[in-house]
Structure prediction request, 311 residues.
Amino acid sequence: MIALPKSVQIKEVGPRDGLQNEKRFIETADKIAIIDKLSKTGLDYIEVTSFVHPKWIPQLADAVEVLKAIKRQKGITYAALVPNSRGLDRALEADVDEVSIFMSASEGHNKANINKTIDETFPILKEVVEGALSSGKTVRGYISTVIACPYDGYVQPTQVVKVAERLFEMGVTEISLGDTIGVGVPTQVDTLLKEILRYFNANQIAMHFHDTRGTALANVMTSLSNGINKFDSAIGGLGGCPYAKGASGNVATEDLLYLLHGMGIETGISLDKIQQTALFLEQKMEKRLNSKLVAVARGEDFDVTVRSLRN
Ligand code: HMG
Ligand code: MG
Prediction:
């Protein structure tokens, strides 16, 4: 058996990655209520929204309002996606705790997603990082399409390293590596991480798995075996990228918790409370969520988890 970490940090990206892909507008008050519930589950990191162009992602056009209205709990970092200086102005106005910049390892997705080439993107992000740091904010970087790109095909790990080096040079403290279209398998994740970890420490890296082909939890196991102990996930398994057709949700927070707690890995998060929040989310979104553990919460599946695993 692989050596497992004692604890793992989960970064909840549902309110941003999850909702950005939803066609039907979720009322601002409902978004706030969902985030306030998430704040009471034991999570210490929530990506609340995104300050991209509202024309591109209308669902998150209420970013300033949401970030200003949530009841912030001590000890929780409330982060948001920021693509450029215009977005940073709005994020600072709403007093974001941490700024998340993002770009892709592949040209095709970078262009489709943020309308720039990779080379054009670096100076734009540098300005964001400088502005955020000088305002006393920390900055996290996302690299998308680290395994494969819906436009360009498979991506070489060396290309991911090149982009990561540039982002770390700018001053980001952590990079989240995204399998944006959720097609990666453990051997590919292992090859990628072996290359990445030649240059960076495991504690500088988080993994962000979408679950389009059902391989996300297997990829989490491979990441754990490489010493990674930070993962992004979305309540209810919501999520996707509007500029990566067919990409489905992130690994569900509750399914990830079941896996981690079952293996004795601490997260500080209550599975019960996440499941209850997922049921609340189903009501507000008027749709069924896909995760395995939300089916348990609905009473549709047997529940063999003992109390000690659930919390
Ligand atoms: P653009 O049209 O190239 O922007 O969009 P521009 O700089 O040419 O500006 C055009 C106009 O937009 C200007 O207004 C700007 O002020 C305005 P005008 O002068 O014409 O009146 N503008 C803005 N307004 C409000 N907020 C802003 C903003 N920026 C410009 N931030 C841009 C470039 C990046 C903004 C656009 O392409 C965009 O918003 N893209 C959204 C992409 C997105 O949200 N994708 C999903 C998130 S990424 C993801 O999901 C992957 C991830 O989960 C990891 C993984 O899974 O791999 C993170
Ligand atoms: Mg994503």
